[in-house]
Design brief:
The complex is a heterotetramer.
Chain A: H1 21-38
Chain B: H1 3-17, E1 23-29, E2 36-41, E3 50-51, E4 71-75, H2 77-88, E5 97-101, H3 110-116, E6 122-128, E7 131-136, E8 140-144, H4 151-154, E9 166-167, H5 182-188, H6 192-202, H7 211-215, H8 240-253, H9 263-267, H10 275-289
Parallel strand pairs in B: 1-4, 4-5, 5-9
Antiparallel strand pairs in B: 1-2, 1-3, 6-7, 7-8
Chain C: E1 8-17, E2 24-31, H1 34-39, E3 47-52, E4 56-61, E5 72-77, H2 81-87, E6 94-101, H3 107-110, E7 114-120, H4 125-135, E8 146-152, H5 161-169, E9 174-179, E10 190-191, H6 194-201, E11 208-213, H7 216-229, E12 236-239, E13 255-256, E14 259-260, E15 267-269, H8 270-275
Parallel strand pairs in C: 7-8, 7-11, 8-9, 9-10, 11-12
Antiparallel strand pairs in C: 1-2, 1-6, 2-5, 3-4, 3-6, 12-15, 13-14
Helix pairs in contact in C: 6-7
């Protein structure tokens, strides 16, 4: 995804067990923070079709 | 390369006569220069139409999917690798096939030739080993074949077929010292914005004809995701985001399976560098799993198996 | 310039669930602009594009008769994207209809003749339109005997049950309702496939014209029965289904031979179909 | 009708002068090929081309075109009611269109503008467009316009025709629209007899250069179902990829699809080019597909162009002989060979 121009930080992977509630919260917060910092995505987002 | 034509004809005739195969798949000489047409022969008396030259850049494996009966087929390096992939993916059985191997020295990029003669109309091409002569109404020029190879052939390191029942010539020396991923590295070095521009420009001419998908032997799904209507994953207009979605997802579907045969790029009527979509995934398969598709029947592809030591640095 | 792609806005006036599997519903529409109703002057056998904003359009045969005023009705089978959405819409919702489209049953030719109607399953819609049209007191004298063979898999899958019962009571129309099978001991009509019942009940092709509407299998097996009875291919009338978009013979997808099913059809005689490639 | 002769400089200047009156679509070099693009700052028209890779059909009939728009916002009184999308139908001219491509518009017109229905977008775009053709001095070996009722200097379908006479060019008005174009254009002077003779000679010699001529004379007389069941279709179709290259590049292919797209509470009804090569083209909602197999779809394309159209309109084939599908078919399925097989079957 990064190769095609999606900014690093918009895509996260984590292993979280159902028992790891604290880790889940941490990850969710980190993801939210990083994505917010990047601002709204403009690339690869379809709005109204660009047609004639 | 021309020398193979006669041998292919002889072999096909023999195989059909001896009933070793029901049909034979090869090429026939095209009606316009630099274009050849896939051909299916079942009558041993009609094998004289079979042909081989420097412009057989399609992938004949494409015509094998879910075929029944015994099939003879010509295969150079990349085509043979796709046959391997087809066998692994159960699209054809090994014992259905009689593979006639052709050691390949690369196919000529017809677009590069047209560029070299400034898009003037080419009426005939004479191919003589290392060189070829391009003839038009008011010009005649000689070129060296090595300088006009398809971009994938120029960096190919598997020119000899990896699987065959019969070989039609001596094995050729494999190229060494090529760096196949220079273009990918260039893109890797770009910042996100540059990358976005690169891929947006790349597809700007796309007309969504799906020639790339249909020429690819890997794309054999009964219904492609772009043709699904419930839900409809991708819009059908010429909107650039939809077009990008198609190309990115198509590339993902080829991950760990693409042999870089270049058929997608060759068939694109708009001349889009289609390999830019698949090559990064090929490179990753090479870097992360030391995998090149279609080299052996004995190993499952990397996206097919789990190993505890699989690359997983990206998972936090 | 009149835009043939622009649907007339309509309001869903009434929704009736027709069958026990709830996959068939009849929608009655009322035009938002009353003058559109006049523009939508149709003849039984024609169809229209039902247009749902955001989903698309679907071609559906008109189930109401032009003799019924104040609304148009369509019976819709839930199959695809648009029909599924439509089934979830409610009375009062606004959508569009575009038409009327296509040709109609050969009413001029049918005049003065015995009319045999053979229908199966949910393809009975334009046949319902035709029956209502013919039974209208002004129209009835134009036709001689009217005989109807209509079948469905089970009782619960028959369309327009109240009307069928009412027609059964009349003496100016011969009804032969049938189901493929039933375990209802009180079932008072026929049991058996439509082609078989047709063979039993229709005795003569004299001065008669047959209209057949149903799934491909019904058409395939009814056709030889009618031919055996003496119906020439010119007097066996069929209505085709085809994937359509524009409905006005322009977009090209319903092309078979030199015909467009949407404009030159959907109604064809068997004689015509025999001249066309069998791509339907 | 007026015939005017221009020097090449006058011609280029004249075109620039027309930019206010028309949106001018001209051939522009685009990578390896040429494409018709609106003339604007920085765009250089290049008339030294054989033909554009994509036909100019998209100027009148874009690949994707918004037809209607609507709101799905239930708070809006107009919710779910379709409104025609605003369009620009101001005058346009396609300058340098080849006679085959102009002829193609006439072929397509029978479909879009018929006695029963007129396609409002196609008709209005077509009517607002002036076609200024450029005769072909050097037709390609794949051109066969003369076999399908056209020619390298064929005027039918054009509003004006340009003859490239080396350092000068002759422009002949063909229709009133073409006359208006010429009147609006600065420079040039009336052409004399000698120039007209020269142009005639040029056209005659160009016609002789057309080398391929598939026979079409027997198509009409054939029985549809005989051709339909002919034994050669499997062989013709074998190599076909079922891609849309032939249909999308073809100036006479007109089939389209209509799709609704929604973004938030707003929706559009869009039409897109479609192709009889795609399985989805005829797939019924029930799952039944009357043209499920590749060979059926390939046959449909050729039968439609060379038989069904011929029968329906009694006005020749649905092909203008431009040769694009011959040159660009990735697997070299050559319509000239198929046409020959059909005609001689």
């Amino acid at each position: 995804m990064e190769h095609v121009g999606i900014e690093p930080g918009r895509l996260h992977f984590s292993w979280i067990s159902s028992a790891e509630a604290t880790k889940f919260v941490d990850v969710a917060n980190t993801v939210a923070k990083e994505v917010k910092a990047l601002g709204p995505a403009r690339y690869f987002i379809k709005k109204r079709a660009e047609v004639a | 390369m021309l020398k193979y034509t006669e041998k292919i004809q002889e072999t096909a005739k023999r195989l059909l006569q001896e009933k070793k195969v029901d049909v034979f798949i090869g090429y026939k000489k095209g009606s316009v220069p630099m274009m050849n047409e896939p051909l299916l022969v079942s009558d041993p008396d009609r094998v004289d139409r079979l042909y081989w030259d420097n412009f057989c850049g399609l992938n004949l494996c494409n015509y094998l999917t879910k075929q029944t009966g015994k099939i003879g087929i010509v295969a150079n390096g990349c085509n043979s690798r796709n046959i391997v992939t087809h066998i692994i993916e159960n699209q054809i059985q090994r014992d259905q096939l009689y593979i006639v191997g052709i050691p390949c020295e690369g196919m000529i990029d017809h677009r590069a030739v047209m560029r070299a003669v400034k898009q003037k109309e080419i009426l005939d091409i004479e191919q003589n080993g290392k060189t070829f002569v391009v003839k038009g109404a008011d010009f005649e020029e000689t070129f060296e074949k090595d300088k006009f190879l398809q971009s994938n052939c120029a960096v190919c390191i598997h020119r000899n077929p990896v699987i065959y029942d019969e070989l039609l010539g001596d094995l050729v020396e494999e190229q060494t010292g090529v760096s196949p991923y220079q273009d990918v590295e260039k893109v890797e070095a770009m910042d996100p914005e540059k990358k976005q521009g690169f891929f947006t420009r790349l597809i700007s001419r796309c007309i969504r004809c799906y020639a790339c998908r249909n020429a690819c032997p890997l794309c054999y799904c009964p219904t492609c995701f772009v043709d699904e209507s419930r839900p409809q994953w991708v819009g059908k207009s010429s909107d650039p985001t939809d077009t990008l979605t198609f190309h990115f997802l198509r590339a993902y579907h080829c991950a760990g399976r693409c042999t870089d045969c270049g058929a997608c790029e060759r068939v694109c009527p708009m001349g889009i560098s289609m390999r830019q979509f698949t090559k990064k995934l090929n490179k990753d398969c090479q870097d992360l799993f030391s995998w090149e598709a279609g080299l052996t029947l004995d190993q499952r592809p990397p996206l097919d198996v789990y190993r505890p030591d699989d690359y997983n640095d990206f998972i936090k | 310039m009149e835009n043939p792609y622009l649907p007339y806005p309509v309001r869903i006036d009434q929704i009736t669930t027709e069958t026990e599997d709830r996959n068939l519903k009849t929608f009655r529409f009322v035009f938002l602009n009353p003058e559109d109703e006049e523009k939508f002057a149709y003849t039984p056998g024609q169809f229209a594009e039902l247009s749902v904003a955001g989903k698309g359009e679907i071609p559906i045969g008109i189930a109401s008769s032009p003799t019924e005023k104040g609304f148009v009705a369509f019976t819709v089978n839930k199959v695809g994207l648009v029909t599924t959405y439509l089934h979830n819409m409610k009375e009062g919702d606004v959508m569009g209809i575009r038409g009327p489209l296509g040709n109609w049953y050969p009413w001029d030719e049918m005049e003065g003749k015995n009319v045999v109607i053979v229908g199966g399953g949910f393809a009975f819609t334009t046949l319902r339109s035709s029956i209502v049209y013919m039974l209208q007191p002004e129209n009835r004298p134009r036709f001689k005997e009217i005989t109807v063979v209509y079948g469905a898999r089970t009782q619960g899958m028959l369309l327009y049950k109240d009307e069928l019962a009412a027609w059964e009571q009349r003496d100016d129309i011969h009804m032969h309702i049938t189901v493929d099978s039933t375990d209802d001991p009180d079932w008072k009509y026929n049991v058996g496939f439509v082609p078989t019942i047709t063979e039993q009940k229709i005795t003569s092709a004299d001065n008669a014209i047959a209209i057949v509407c149903g799934p491909p299998i019904l058409i395939r097996f009814t056709q030889p029965v009618l031919e055996k009875l003496g119906f020439p291919p010119e007097r066996i009338i069929l209505s085709l289904e085809m994937r359509m978009k524009c409905g006005i013979g322009i977009c090209g997808r319903c092309n078979i031979g030199d015909k467009y099913v949407c404009k030159d059809g959907p109604v064809f005689s068997l004689a015509q179909l025999k001249q066309m490639p069998p791509e339907y | 009708m007026t015939d005017k002769i221009f020097t090449k400089e006058e011609w280029m200047k004249g075109l620039e002068g027309l930019m206010d009156a028309y949106t001018l679509f001209v051939p522009v070099k685009d990578g390896d090929f040429h494409a018709f693009m609106p003339l604007s700052e920085g765009k250089i028209p290049d008339f030294d081309f054989q033909n554009t890779r994509l036909s100019p059909k998209s100027v009148i009939y874009p690949q994707s075109e918004r037809l209607f728009e609507y709101t799905l916002d239930s708070a809006d009184a107009e919710a779910n009611i379709l409104k025609e999308s605003p369009k620009d139908f101001s005058p346009r001219a396609i300058v340098g269109i080849r006679p085959c491509d102009a002829h193609a518009f006439q072929i397509v017109r029978r479909n879009f503008d018929n006695p029963e229905y007129r396609d409002p977008w196609w008709v209005r775009h077509f009517e607002s467009t002036t076609l200024v053709g450029l005769g072909c001095n050097d037709p390609c070996s794949t051109c066969f316009c003369t076999a399908v009722g056209g020619g390298p200097f064929h005027e039918e379908g054009l509003d004006a025709l340009v003859f490239d006479l080396g350092d000068r060019c002759l422009i002949k008005g063909v229709t009133d629209k073409g006359e208006a174009f010429l009147t609006n254009m600065n420079g040039g002077k009336p052409a004399d007899e000698a120039v007209l003779k020269e142009a005639e000679g040029l056209a005659a010699s160009a016609s002789k250069k057309i080398t391929s001529s598939p026979p079409t004379d027997q198509l009409k007389g054939k029985k549809t179902n005989d051709l339909f069941t002919a034994p050669f279709w499997e062989e013709v179709a074998f190599g076909c990829l079922n891609c849309g290259t032939c249909t999308y590049l073809c100036p006479t292919c007109w089939c389209f699809d209509i799709q609704d797209e929604v973004s938030g509470k707003k929706g559009d009804r869009i039409r897109n080019w479609d192709s009889c090569m795609f399985p989805l083209f005829t797939l019924h909602g029930s799952g039944h597909n009357p043209r499920d197999a590749k060979v059926q779809r390939v046959r449909q394309r050729f039968m439609h162009k060379l038989k069904y159209y011929v029968d329906k309109y009694d006005n020749g084939a649905q092909c203008s002989g431009c040769g694009r599908c011959v040159r660009y078919c990735p697997v070299n399925i050559d319509i000239r060979n198929v046409c020959k097989r059909m005609n001689n079957f």
